[in-house]
Q: What sequence folds into this?
């Protein structure tokens, strides 16, 4: 099963006050009505996320373009962003010392 399909199947959007909507599929080749719906949601480029209030109007628009978008609740969005930030976080630099190690026992 596709990761996005599994992700979308488990989203409880009925109780969340805010919805984070991400466009994950391209607009070219879609129906004019779907393009207009995405334009109304202010989704113009792939992998862009917008926040919308959870209203029946917005849920109807999402139902229309559900194969093009991923819907997240606020908690899911923050968890995903935090995971991405931790993944991209800078690691301490690796210091390589090319000098010979000092010997503790001196030659007698």
A:
């Amino acid at each position: 099963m596709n990761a996005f399909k599994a992700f979308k199947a488990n989203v409880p959007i009925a109780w969340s006050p805010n919805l984070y909507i991400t466009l994950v599929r391209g607009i070219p080749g879609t129906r004019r009505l779907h393009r207009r719906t995405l334009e109304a949601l202010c989704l113009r480029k792939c992998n862009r996320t917008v926040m919308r209030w959870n209203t029946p109007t917005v849920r109807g628009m999402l139902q229309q373009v559900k194969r093009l978008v991923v819907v997240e609740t606020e908690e899911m969005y923050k968890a995903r962003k935090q995971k991405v930030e931790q993944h991209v976080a800078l690691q301490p630099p690796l210091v390589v010392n090319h000098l010979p190690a000092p010997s503790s026992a001196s030659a007698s």
